[in-house]
Specification:
Number of helices: 7
Order of helices and strands: HHHHHEHEEEEHEEE
Helix content: 25-40%
Low-confidence stretches: 50-59
Distance between the termini: 53 Å
Mean pLDDT: 75
Radius of gyration: 21 Å
Number of strands: 8
Shape: globular
Structural class: alpha+beta
Largest sheet: 4 strands, antiparallel
Strand content: 25-35%
Strand order of the largest sheet: 4-1-8-7
Length: about 260
């Protein structure tokens, strides 16, 4: 008899992925967590096909078996501290198994879409990563002087664009950010936003200090509709601010209007 994938299994995996997010980020396993979100989408798809056609689940018996095995591995990882040797060993094994299901593999998709990104502002920013001299700078001039040249770098499928540098206000916000960017993409593309504070001499060794990052999959954006998002940025698993932006996703050749 073919193994079964139930709605309860899918809900359990979703819960495990959410629970594991912080632990995986702490262990520098952000890419693995991204692959796990893809896994839960695949499980939902398998379940949906099974509900519409009973033979579909039997045809994917091998896939369902692997999904069930991965579910048990996720359960084992969730029981281990993120700094333990066993946790890292289980993560390594999981990375080896996921490609068997097509997870984490680049699909041969054409970039037949374009997305217009309109940056609106930054809210409640935390101080950036420490750079040599920041301690004295904060004592003498105040902590907000470490957020005087904030900029956003947006990356999508190897394309990069940066906003102009700006200073935060007393609430550590930037509400006058009004920049637009245009990228070619596909529906599976993932937008990565990295918020930095620009430094000159201090960036020579370790680069500009990171404030936080956020990711957005374009598959979650409606085609042909202006969509406003407020994304939480994080660093080392901790919330470090929010990014407000507006997006418009359209097929190539279609006029884009934000």
């Amino acid at each position: 008899m073919a193994p079964r994938m139930t709605e309860e299994n899918v809900q359990d995996v979703v819960a495990l992925v959410v629970t594991l997010k912080e632990a995986l980020e702490d262990a520098d396993e952000v890419e693995l967590w991204t692959q796990l979100t893809e896994l839960q989408d695949q499980m939902t798809s398998v379940l949906s096909n099974a509900e519409n056609d009973a033979s579909a689940l039997r045809a994917k018996a091998d896939t369902v078996k692997r999904l069930n095995e991965i579910y048990f591995q996720l359960s084992a990882i969730a029981e281990e501290p993120s700094n333990s040797v066993q946790f890292l060993h289980l993560c390594k094994h999981l990375r080896e198994v996921l490609p068997q299901l097509g997870i984490g593999q680049e699909l041969p998709t054409e970039k037949n879409y374009e997305v217009q990104v309109h940056m609106l502002g930054l809210l409640d920013l935390s101080l950036p990563e420490y750079r040599f001299g920041d301690g004295i700078r904060k004592i003498v001039q105040g902590p907000e002087t470490c957020l005087q040249s904030v900029f956003i770098e947006v990356e999508l499928d190897g394309q990069r664009c940066k906003t102009a540098q700006q200073s935060v206000n007393k609430e550590r916000c930037i509400t006058t950010c009004n920049e637009e960017m245009l990228f070619s993409c596909c529906r599976q593309s993932q937008l990565t936003l990295s918020v930095y504070d620009h430094r000159q001499i201090q960036s020579s060794l370790r680069g500009h200090p990171l404030i936080g990052q956020a990711m957005l999959t374009l598959a979650d954006i409606q085609i042909g509709e202006s969509t406003q998002k407020e994304l939480v940025i994080t660093r080392h698993g901790e919330e470090t601010g929010r990014v407000s932006l507006q997006l418009y996703l359209a097929q190539l050749g279609t006029a884009t209007t934000l």
